[in-house]
Amino acid sequence: MWRAIPVILLLALVPSGTLSKVPADNVILPGRSVGRWSLEMTLDQFVRSAGPANAREFHEILDLRRTFDFHCTTEICAFYRSHGELAFLHISHIGTASRTDRGPGMGSPMAEVLAAYGRPDAITRTGDDFGGYIRLIYDRIGIAFRLNLVTETVVSISIYRPGRASSIWRF
């Protein structure tokens, strides 16, 4: 009983909600970073940080405006231009960085994304009447959420420099 009192007192000193928050290095920041990976990194810095590529092909993003080179690991993909500038970072697995600074993340329902970010600047759709995906693009801040149309949940998140969505996706 007496041993529990110091722990309870210590927990009382911790600000409300602090224990439940995702650590800062695991947060997705629109237009800036996915966890420890930043759009400001060079391709070499990204590869050193993320590790060797383990994916030779990438089929998930079919509605790209142009062809990008990419470096994918089990945690993250970096899509880059021929001169090595990172165009966008993309995650499609719940892992290291799976939630945004406003809360929505991998597996979140569409309603949570809309409540946190409001009306998207653009919406794209791929697939058919029996399934497929939509992408909610928030170009003014540099984030796009791809959602499964059947479950209406987030299946991938891409971050990019604000104002550049039209150079990445067709819409």
| Shape label | globular
Low-confidence stretches: 4-23
- Radius of gyration over alpha carbons? 18 Å
- Our measurement of the CA-to-CA distance between the termini, rounded to an integer number of angstroms, reads 63 Å
Characterization of the model:
With 171 residues, this protein is of the alpha+beta class. It has one domain. The protein contains three helices and eleven strands. It has helices at residues 4-13, 43-50, 110-117, and strands at 27-29, 33-34, 37-38, 69-72, 77-80, 86-91, 99-100, 122-128, 131-138, 143-148, 153-160. The strands form two sheets. A seven-stranded antiparallel β-sheet has the order 4-5-6-11-10-9-8, with helices on one face. A four-stranded mixed β-sheet has the order 3-2-1-7. The longest helix has 10 residues, at 4-13. The relative contact order is 0.17. Residues 4-23 have low confidence and may be disordered.
